[in-house]
Design brief:
This protein is globular. The N and C termini lie far apart (30 Å). The protein is mainly alpha-helical. The chain has one domain: Cytochrome c-like domain (Cytochrome Bc1 Complex, Chain D, domain 2), CATH 1.10.760.
Length: 100
């Protein structure tokens, strides 16, 4: 069993899904391709250590990166219909941390 501080495996990141069915569908269609694939360079879903410095930047910065794109992340994170609330919920799910 993996300790919480360890990086998740690709299969663990790939198997993770939000409890909310609508959010899970958005995650599967828009986020999972990069956030469950170590080769993509994005922080893996559930990798608390990789997400920590990003979360420390705060909700405004995380939303800006999600909406406008950042480095390898495409604008709107491949979710053109997502609201700010959905982005924040997805970030909280992937990071395993509360977003403020």
């Amino acid at each position: 069993m993996r300790r919480r501080a360890e990086k998740p495996t690709r299969s663990e990141a790939g198997a993770a899904r939000p409890a909310d069915a609508e959010l899970a569908q958005v995650y599967d269609n828009s986020c999972k391709l990069c956030h469950a694939n170590p080769a993509a360079g994005a922080p893996l879903t559930g990798d608390i250590k990789a997400w920590a410095p990003r979360v420390l930047q705060g909700a405004d910065t995380l939303l800006d990166h999600a909406i406008n794109g950042y480095n390898g992340m495409p604008p709107m994170g491949m979710c053109m219909q997502c609201s700010q609330e959905q982005f924040l919920a997805l970030i909280a799910f992937m990071s395993g941390q509360q977003i403020q």
